[in-house]
Structures are given as C-alpha cells and as structure tokens.
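lol forgot to send this yesterday, sorry. struct tokens for the thing we talked abt
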C-alpha cells in the first residue's frame, strides 16, 4: 500500500517553516545543548566577576598604600618636629651661657641690671623646659655618663667616690631629648 504524500505547500518548504519576507526559511525550533545555552552569558558573567575582583583588589591595595603613607607621614612628622625643637632649643644655649657668665661676674653687686639679667636667664630656662629640655645641675648625685660630661676630678673626703662634686655647666634635657650633658667635676677615690 502506498500512501500518497501531499505535495509540499508553498508555505511549508523543506527546511522547517514558512518562508520569511526576505525569502529565507525559519528553521523552526533549534535544539540547544545545555553547554550551548549559557556559554556566552556565563563567560560574560565570569569576565565581569573577574573584572570586579580585580577592581576590588586594586581598591584594597590603594587603601593599604594610603594607610601606609599616613603612618609614614605621622612618623616623619614626629621626627621633623623633634629635630626642629632641638634646633630651636640649641640656639638658646649660647644666650644662656652668656647670661650665666654675666651673672658670675656680677655676684658682688645687687643692682637692677643684675636682677634683670637673672630674670632673663630664668625666662630662657623656662622656655627650654617648655620645649622639653629641663635644666639639671644637681651635685652629690652619682655620676651618669648619659647625663654628665666629666671636665675634672677632685679628691673630696666628704663626698662618695664617683659622685658629682661640682657642676661647671648645667645640662638640658633627658634621655633621647637631651640637648647637652652637664659638665661636671667628679669626686674620685682617695688612695
């Protein structure tokens, strides 16, 4: 038995569907595999995720660089301030030395000039103390090479050996903030 096929209508050309206006035929539903379905979209999503991660990484690095720069600047600022403070305070030292010299020569007179010079000296000492360089000129204390500079030795039976017997020039500041050590005469052991 033979079946007769219907002739193909002009609307149903072999190829799947009715002809389009441009003369091409609709291929009908195409079968897509799961790999084909998301491949272009998934690759775009992966590309965007990679770009986003790269931007996040650069952002984190920029924040870390900024934080490191801020910390380095803060440390440098402390150093610069300390150096400037030391330079300023050191410029006061000759003034103080000259005032001390004037006072040592004027001990016998109590005039208004002498009192004025003392006031200026006290003011200069206070300026240095305010800058962090307190004056020290204690006698009878143990010799400390970090605070004292020996300019002479003396045999003093009333003093303990290795103690400051006389301060020739006062010192200013302590530890890392020292402008200069005190010039002292130290008692030595009696033999």
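and heres what i got for the seq, position by position
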């Amino acid at each position: 038995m033979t079946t007769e096929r219907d002739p193909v209508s002009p609307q149903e050309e072999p190829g799947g569907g009715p002809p389009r206006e441009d003369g091409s035929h609709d291929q009908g539903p195409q079968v897509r595999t799961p790999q084909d379905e998301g491949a272009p979209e998934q690759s775009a999503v992966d590309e965007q995720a990679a770009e986003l991660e790269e931007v996040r990484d650069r952002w984190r690095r920029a924040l870390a660089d900024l934080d490191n720069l801020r910390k380095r600047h803060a440390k440098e600022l402390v150093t610069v301030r300390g150096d400037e403070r030391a330079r300023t305070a050191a410029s006061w030292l000759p003034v103080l030395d000259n005032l001390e010299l004037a006072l040592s020569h004027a001990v016998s007179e109590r005039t208004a000039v002498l009192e004025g010079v003392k006031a200026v000296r006290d003011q200069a000492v206070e300026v240095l103390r305010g800058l962090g360089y307190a004056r020290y000129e204690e006698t009878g204390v143990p010799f400390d090479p970090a605070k004292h500079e020996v300019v002479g030795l003396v045999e003093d039976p009333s003093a303990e050996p290795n103690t400051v017997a006389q301060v020739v020039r006062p010192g200013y500041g302590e530890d890392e903030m020292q402008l200069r050590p005190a010039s002292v005469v130290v008692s030595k052991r009696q033999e």
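The chain has two helices and five strands. anyway ping me if u want another try
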